[in-house]
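WARN no homologs supplied; continuing
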Amino acid sequence: MKTIRVLHFWKDLGLISRLMLAVGIAIVAGGGVQTALLVAEGAGEHSARLAREQTETLAFLAPLVADQALVGDYAAISQLLKNQVKKGEVDRFSWTDKDGKRLVAQDLPDKLEAPTWFARVAAIEHQDQSIEVTAGGVGYGTLSAGMTPVKAQNRLWLQFVKQLQIVAVTLFLMLQFIWLIFRGNLGTLRMLAEGANRFSQGDHAVRIDAEGAPEVGLAAEAFNNMANNIESLIASLGKSESKSKLLATIVEQSSEAIWTTDLDGSVTSWNSGAATMFGYPPAEAIGRPLTVSESTPQEEAARMRRLLAGEKFSYDARATTRAGTPIDIQVAVAPLLDESNQCVGRIAVARDVTQHKRSEEALRLAREAAETASHAKSSFLARMSHEIRTPMNGVLGMTELLLETGLTGTQRKYAETVQRSGKNLLGIINDLLDFSKIEAGKLELEKVEMDLRRTIEDIVELLAERAHRKGLELACSIPGDLMTQVRGDPLRLGQILTNLLGNAIKFTEQGSVVIRVASVAQTAKNVTMRFEVADTGVGISQTALSRIFEEFSQVDGSTTRKHEGSGLGLAISKQLVEMMGGNIHVNSEFGVGSTFWFTISLEKQPVQSQGDPHAKPLGLLTGVRALIVESSAVHRGILQGHMSNWEMSIRVAETPKQAIDLLAQAAARSVPFDIAVVDLGLPGMDALELARTIRARADIGKLRLVMLTRRHVDMRNAQDAGFNACLVKPVRQTMLYECLVNIMAGRPQEALAAPAVSKPATTAPTSVRGNILLVEDNLINQQVALGILQIQGYSVTVVSDGREALEAHAQGDFDLILMDCHMPEMDGYEATREIRRRERLSSGKRIPIVALTANAMARDREECLNAGMDDHLSKPFNMLVLQEMLARWLAPTESKQTEAAELAAQATAKAAEVLDRQMLDQLSKVVTNGKPELLSRVIKLYLVESPKLIQQLQQAGMEDNAPQIASCAHALKSCSANVGATLLSRYCTDIEASARRGDTDDARKILAKVEAEHACVQSALTTQVELLATSRA
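OK structure emitted
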């Protein structure tokens, strides 16, 4: 019953009362337990302390009592015990001597302040203690101490009272805190209860102010959020109902066919769009399994599986209307889901695409027609290229042959006009064909290994004569450290540069044209190059700049007529640059000049070769004092850059007077110049007169002189004036380097003179240079090629088609075959394949076959090479081009005749001295100024660097890398000649020539000679170094 009453009492209590009661009970219980433990622990501690106090006090008093007992001073003992009673914990001392006499000292008894029940509960154990008093081993009596636990019980009672006070205060504070904390929170809870009740009765605007603890505030906030959501939901339901009505109206009025079906295929809804599209009214369609699309049972089953999987999809189908009219529709299908996300049907939306299908079919037919037209255009371009170039070959070829005959002045003028007009017409045709190929997307770029420096210098050299005829300075600036071993399309890059340089020369009447190249960015695989062509020509107006790169556009119409041309060069250049991954731009000021520049991305060669061997030479020009006498700032800067890169000591002069002053001043200081590079066209005094002035003076007359000129000067006149060598501007870096090295080494006869203008042979040589088979079906082309070949001294056999070529090949021994590609009966491709098959079967020598074709398409060259031909010559060709092609593939007859003699002499050369002593003596005197240690340094440098070149040659030979073989052989040739290894230098020349014409097999054969000779040279040079060291000692 008591338990029931307690439970009822507990249920009737509020939250705060329950919490306060529970906390009060917990605090009282905890405090009581803690107090009981404290009392019990205190009683034990006091008992131990009383015993310890008695023991320590007796131990302290015993010696003092013994001293007084020894003299029998009992009054002192009594006083001592009384004093100790008053100040210590011990209540009573007694002293009994050996005679039984007893002295007692006792303090007044303490009053028990604690209740009797507490004294019984906190029982403190105590008993009297005694100790024998001795002195000198003699006992004098017994000292006893006794004490009562009253003092300890009083102290323990005080502690007990304090503990009860702490518990009471704690209980009071806790109950107050609980009351304060929960009083505000309970108000919020009551408001929540009332708010919920009102909300349930429809008062959806009720909200609760969040007060009290965060948890209570979260509850109030949750209630408010719930009320907001429910209120919004009620509003949304109203809007949704309106939207549903609107959506139903939209679906009904939609022009698209929209309908739903159950899983059995029966139509459950059918809008007006479906009724219009298929012709079935809703009353007739709804409730029946209507199939509107022409589908097989398998297709319908597959669609149903996709629907049941919850997939949305679309498909095209052919449908038939109620009237039997076929239409094309595009259907989008989605599953209809119930509340448990189970598919219960489908919704389909169909669109009539009949007209769209018809448009697609028309577009397909138009595309096929366009592709057919594009193919016809490409075929037309190829055919027109062939048809135009064939008669052009006859016109230009015959005109060239005509010019080699004895003509009068008037006749020669007419013939030259015909030839020049024909070349201009051919240039326009080439531009039109290139533009058409680019426009049709048929032009493909090559990616082959190329030497960028050589490519640029070849183009500059090709256009130099045109610039010099107009009195222009043409300069080429290529940094010595530029990465020139790259992969790209040298033909198309050359075409861009030729267009830009040609235009610059065409539109410049005075001043200079300069091409500059620099690397602007690079990655691990690619390098971005910037090419710049600057001129001092007429410039371009701002109006013309906006359309300068448009097709058929030049500065203005009068310029087009004045300077001829198709107006396609810059448009083609722009598109080629963009195909190479770059951009082209122009900066120009009308009347001042123009600068065209473009950037392209080129791929680095996987293994970088030495590049230009003179970019970082072996130090043969290090420290040589040179004077540059050049009035053109452009050429002066280029020469200074090259020569500084070779570690020469450079000074420059702009006028002859300044040059003579510098030379005289240097001679007066006993530091004369070693060499001077002099431009022919100096202001006030030309180079020839300056050379005579220098030679006439004793102090500077021994200066070595190199002349630079824009025209091909007779070397004899330059030598008569005192020049050691003559070079034509713009000077190739390699030519300048070799010229300076040869002159400094005392070999002026080997210094590079001005290269003569390449001219074809005009008279037949006394002996036959080789047997050539000409395969050509066009009679005019036969006569042109036959005339050129006979003038150059070749024995020519002419046939008209591939079958006759095979017959002639079987009967004759030919050194080279010129093969036309397109002929009746059998074309050149098939004939070439048959000749190569015969060579493989018979293991006979491989005859070089050069294709002759009038086609200008890039794929023609690839087709020729795939057929087994070795090279490609495009018609029309002139005498010089054909002569260069033959020189590339036909080795000189003399070399064949002397090959056996060279092999026989090789053994003798190994036994003889391998170094040219005279050359070493000249090198010692000229290059090192008579200092043996400098000659020793040059030789040691050769001994370190040349094995690296040998290793690179071997690697290039194993890889069949002809450009790398030629580059390494060229470098080894120059440095070997400089240290007197003439035979080794000659072998390197032979390897270089073989590599230049692509004959890597022949180059590898000569490499064995190079390796053997290099070993001998190394041994001889090592001995020479030892001798030099001995002479210094």
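The mean pLDDT is 77.
OK
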